[in-house]
Structures are given as structure tokens and as C-alpha cells.
From TrEMBL:
This is BEACH domain-containing protein. Residues 1-171 form the BEACH domain. Pfam families: Beach. Residues 1-21 are annotated as: Disordered. Residues 8-21 have a biased composition (Basic and acidic residues). Signal peptide: none annotated. PROSITE patterns: BEACH.
């Protein structure tokens, strides 16, 4: 039975509220652009100032797997350590807070072997301003219980990603 809705592991529901708040922020931005255009501004109204899947976003997630692509984009150097992907929680909260950060998860997040999260190549990614080295991606504790130990949920998440079906509940 693939129905695990009652497994007590539905995640933190406050993030649904955060997503609604973020949606409101984008709608406000659109309304402000519309008003500015009405007042003679040259910029047409828009919801998002960037595409959700730019090469930079893809390389942000995959720096540990294919560093050569990021190095090519950054003129042979890694980005500043504080801007590299180092914590899943920090990246998630940044996306929720900022209307200019519209990264989406990639298929690699739903694979059984998430090698892109581990610095297997021991790349010299630097130290953040807080002194912590950028190495393996820091994962929140729920990842291990919610996804790794729950193959049913993993299958549902992969299926939702594969099907791109509107309204599929993966939480």
C-alpha cells in the first residue's frame, strides 16, 4: 500500500503558509510593476525577475559533482564560499524569503544515491565568514527519517517529479 498519509510524517505545515506569503510577495511585485508602468515606466509587469532553472542555479546545486561547469561560468574560480550550496535548510529558507531566488529542486534530489551532496572529490570550496568550511552539504535531521527510511515517500516524490502532475501531494 503506497498510501502513507497517516504515517505521522507529514512535515512542518507552516511552510505551506510561507509559500502562500511568498506568492503574495510576487503578486505585490507584479502590482508595483503594473503601477510603475502606468506612471510612465518602461518595464512591463513581471512576476519573476529570473527563470527558475538558469545554468547558474543548476551549477549551484551540482558544484560537488561537476565543478568544471561552475568553474567555467566563474572564470576559473569557485564563487564566494558564503554563496555556495552548503546547507539544505539555509537554501530552502533563502528561497522562501527572497523574491529574487526562485531555485527549484532537481531530479538529483529524488535519486536513491544523492552523491551531489557529498564532496567526494575533496574540492577546495573555501571557508564561510563564520569560519565553517564548505564541504558536504549540511542536511536537516528529518531528511534521514522522512526520506531515507521511508521508501514509500521516496517513490511518491520521484513519481510526482517524473509525472509533473498538478496537485500531486508529495508532503
Amino acid at each position: 500500500d503506497d498510501d502513507d498519509d497517516d504515517d505521522g510524517n507529514r512535515g512542518d505545515q507552516r511552510y505551506n503558509k510561507n509559500a502562500e506569503n511568498r506568492r503574495g510577495d510576487f503578486e505585490d511585485e507584479f502590482a508595483n510593476c503594473h503601477l510603475e508602468q502606468h506612471l510612465g515606466g518602461a518595464i512591463k509587469p513581471f512576476m519573476y525577475g529570473t527563470h527558475y532553472s538558469t545554468p547558474g542555479y543548476v551549477m549551484f546545486w551540482l558544484v560537488r559533482c561537476v565543478p568544471s561547469h561552475l568553474l567555467r561560468m566563474q572564470n576559473g574560480r569557485y564563487d564566494a564560499p558564503d554563496r555556495l550550496f552548503s546547507s539544505l535548510s539555509e537554501s530552502f529558507h533563502q528561497v522562501l524569503r527572497s523574491t529574487t531566488d526562485v531555485k527549484e529542486l532537481m531530479a538529483e534530489f529524488f535519486l536513491p544515491q544523492p552523491d551531489f551532496l557529498v564532496n567526494v572529490k575533496r574540492l577546495p570550496l573555501g571557508r564561510r565568514q563564520n569560519g565553517k568550511p564548505v564541504d558536504d552539504v549540511e542536511l536537516p535531521p528529518w531528511v534521514f527519517t522522512s526520506l531515507i527510511q521511508n521508501p514509500t515517500r521516496r517513490r511518491r516524490m520521484r513519481g510526482a517529479l517524473r509525472n509533473r502532475t498538478e496537485g500531486v501531494e508529495v508532503g
